[in-house]
Amino acid sequence: MGIAEKMKCLGVSRRDFLKYCTAVSGTLALSPAFAPKIAEAIESDTRPPVIWLEFQDCAGDTESLLRASAPTAAQLILDHLSVDYHETIMSAAGHQAESAKENTFEKYKGKYICVVEGSIPTGADGAYCTVGGRSAVDILKEIGGNAAFVIAVGTCATFGGLPAAYPNPTGAKSVQELLPGKTVINLPGCPMNVDNLNGTIVHYLLFGAPPAMDKFLRPKFAYGKRIHDNCERRAHFDAGQYVEAWGDYGHKQGWCLYKMGCKGPETFHNCPTIRWNDGTSWPVQAGHGCAGCSEPGFWDTMTPLYKRLPNVPGFGVEATATKIGAAVVGISAVVFGAHGIISAIRNRGLVKKVESSEFEDDDK
Amino acid sequence: MANKIVVDPITRIEGHLRIEAKVENGKIVDAWSSSTMFRGIEKILQGRDPRDAWFYTQRFCGVCTTVHSIASIRAVENALGIKVPYNAEMLRNIIMGIQNVQDHVIHFYHLHALDWVDIVSALKADPRKTAALQQSVSDWKYSSADYFKSVQDKIGAFANTGRLGPFSNGYWGHPAMKLPPEVNLMGVAHYLEALNLQKEIIKIHAILGSKNPHPQTFLVGGMAIPVDPNSQNALNAAKIAEINKYIQMADEFVKKVYVPDVLAVAPYYLDWTKYGAGHLNYLAYGEFPETQSGYPDGLWIPGGIVKDGDLKNVIDVDHNKITEYVTHSWYDYTGGDATAKHPYDGEQNANYTGPKPPYDYLNTDEKYSWVKAPRYDDAPMEVGPLARMVVGYARGHKEITGAIEYTLSELNAGAEILFSTLGRTAARALESLITVDRMPKWMDMLVNNIKTGDYETHNPEKWDPESWPTNARGYGFHEAPRGALGHWVVIENKNIKNYQAVVPTTWNASPRDANEQRGQYEQSLIGTPLADPERPLEILRTIHSFDPCLACAVHIYDGKGDLKSKVKVL
Predict the structure, then answer these.
(1) B4-36+61-114+197-566, which class in CATH?
(2) What is the distance in angstroms between the Cα of A125 and the nearest Cα belonging to chain B?
(3) What is the mean pLDDT of residues A197-212?
(4) ipTM above 0.90, yes or no
(5) What predicted TM-score, i.e. pTM, was given to this entire model?
(6) Could you tell me which residues come within 8 angstroms of residue B25 by beta carbon, excluding any fewer than 6 positions away?
(7) Chain-chain contact of A57 with B150 (C-beta, under 8 angstroms)
């Protein structure tokens, strides 16, 4: 007797049974093909090992990870990857935690994926951030330096972020500054959008290599377009319909937030298309301008938050906005140094292609 | 030094925490709490637009990701004398409420549960008995034997790979693990369920504030989400319905899973009502304005101080009595290390004097942490859900008293069990319970106000910096998931001159002060038994019961030493 028949004997209708099955797979975040998949996993457990390091972070990128839906955090952590070290979620602590990291380091040297969250302070001999008595710089060089590749998640790990904002009290640096020559994939954003981490990991699992990246080492599938160009309020910008004050008619009607300080015209990120929290919303949709959080140095170059960008004309904005893009490149080069960019681009073991001219308008 | 044990990193927390403890005859006789990470955000804030401050301070923490925004905008609003529209107050209540509930769920299931629940033992469970147990504690929908069997199979398959990922080297089979396999299996199932639930209920932040973590909607003077029932680009009935759906989801989980789990697990761990009390001093500022006059009037959760566990006397909070020491923190004070400074007079000149990394031990006789030592009237305080429940209980607050008395009767125990590791963990569940119960009321208050035709969400009066005085200063308080939070801001010529935050984990994780009084983590570890000092699970239990958030706790502001003359003491 199959389970469906058994259930029927117990007075459970087929409809209830199917509903139950759906609920179970939904609850466990499993696809319908769950059982054979797990069986297969036992036979050939090919989950890439991951060491997730946290330094000068706020755990915002980890929390973003927990909001994942396709695949879910549970699937990602348990089914697709083997997350052997992650301070915020792992059960072991102290030297048990550190030995879990060491085991993976020894066994999978050169093969594991290293994820880094938070910037790395270089001041005070590394004492501004230590884990297990070791400095963040030391840990990054050892664990990041021996990984297959490194994914820097969030703007702190990718560009130094908030700790590196003026006057950078702790000498905070980004992953790529401290690991010249290493393959680094940058997923900036404050926090990173977990859909982009998922996209990167799934890309790696499907195609066996990291995705193509722009000159800031950001995957093009996620950072290839300006917010402004995909913005749902773009028509209002072109029509000259702007929010002039919080809560005014235009604000209630979803007009353009440019005059309220929106940084969408200078920001490359896929927020308008993938949105956040299962596609629920994104800043402009909810009535607040873009802060430019995926751009290098944005804490200094994109603030004050509510100050409008200079020199973005109304209709026919393209040429000017592209110039602004070039200006951002200049600022960024100062922020983390031409050397970092060049060496990072030079060493693309796994990366197929790095575009040399970014901020081009692909869709023009 | 050799008899000291070190736990670093303390995992399943936010941030970087290290505990050193001295053990004699299987018990902790002394302990030191050290934060090992520092960023300097308050220094970065100097010279910036005060209307931007919330956006920077929000990044103190990505877990309690709204709390420093709220405290910051309140501080600036207080400095500039801005009254916030009623709609905005209610929107803030809803955002804060679901933040607390979602954060507590994540804490219990993903940061704390594995201190009590043995995943490996769950493999030995009889799923039918787990089903019977689940059905006996609530009418939660996932309660069949087949369901628990599927969870067990999943974990079994995972374990059979031999690669346990985040569960590697856990404290499985530890002598302090007391739950029967069936209860463990229920715990594992709920761990997975909660992982999916938390991302759903927090969508309230996305609907109202664009995204989570780090919702982008706060404004000095109100909120950036417009209200207009007849617009598709503003808060309308459809969005209200969606928010209600998530409140309902949170309500069901808290009442049918979270609270019953705490009550089901507690009887196996009643020993833990005897450990972890620490100093019996509790501080709360109060939260959730419910009247038209707005914050800080008409707070639903009351503020106050209970000292020495004396529930008969509640002291009103006087902010002048808050001071901070740096005697054992890596900062210098101009008046010397023996002095304590009010946040308005504070200075934080970072000066690392600890051992050069890599190191084995800190010199705990000297300075040993990036966290300062806040004191109230020179006494260390505990803040957080337990402090709020204790203060509310002592004040006879209706919902808090009801929740506590229900729990005590379920466990057949007196109020003294609150002052413990288990009491702290239970308080968080009870707070979630009364909060999910309250949230529909805030939704009603918001809807009823919109019904009157009031769509205001922002007060524009002082938005333009040209309308500000040359000098202004203010404070903002908030009850964050982890406890009483305060921000202080000094504005000069339209820019931030100084910024200071005294946050929940600064209170709880503080090192010793000039009088060598231990901080609350340190004190609460004294007397805790360790079954196996090589696997110090018991330390994690008590430390996790506080829900540490270290990134919040460490900050700097570069004191100019002349604040006193410029700042009106509260």
Answers:
(1) mainly alpha
(2) 7
(3) 91
(4) yes
(5) 0.90
(6) none
(7) no
